[in-house]
Specification:
Layout: E1 2-7, E2 23-24, E3 27-28, H1 29-38, E4 43-48, H2 52-60, E5 70-74, H3 82-90, E6 99-103, H4 111-118, E7 126-131, E8 134-135, E9 139-141, H5 146-151, H6 158-162, E10 167-171, H7 184-192
Parallel strand pairs: 1-4, 1-6, 4-5, 7-10
Antiparallel strand pairs: 2-3, 6-9, 7-8, 7-9
Length: 198
Amino acid sequence: METVLLAAGASSRMGGIPKQLLPFGHVPLVVHSVETALHVSDKVILVTGFQAELIEDAVSHAHIDHEDCLIIVRNKHYEHGQFSSTHIGVSHVSPEVDFFITMADLPLIEPYHYIALAEQLGTHDAVRPHHNGYPGHPVIVSNRMRDTILKLPITATMRDFISTIDVVNWEHPDSAWITDIDTPEDYRRLLTLKHPFV
């Protein structure tokens, strides 16, 4: 398995502060997300964009196990939207492997979430977790879909991609799939949760 980890967004609702650099436990959130993905991935492709230098510096100065399995690519056109980052990340995925697509602002995702999701793929094109009807991440995608993604324009959306394929919407009771950080209030709420890494 390989993972495309998106960390290119402008964090507009955070007042311009890169949410990927918010402390989570003893490390920046992006480092936590990279380490989690590396536990279950032969390769992690981290896509940066907004304030890329700051995020890349945070990762490069962290002591990350298996960092030789980490590739950092920069989306110079991140303002075109999230799918532009997905597109550049997937272009670095090995053609023969299934892969995850996920965000760097999902702090409660652990290795077992990736493993449980992978077990649902089977012969489907993709599996997307849902909690109480809300779609979450990671999404796992069959290697057959790599070229399908790359043929879409960078201005497309994940919804455009998913609407054309055999995707399983996997309902799950764990809210971690949808617990992301978009606002300062989201971050403060996260810090009140009883979680071993906070």
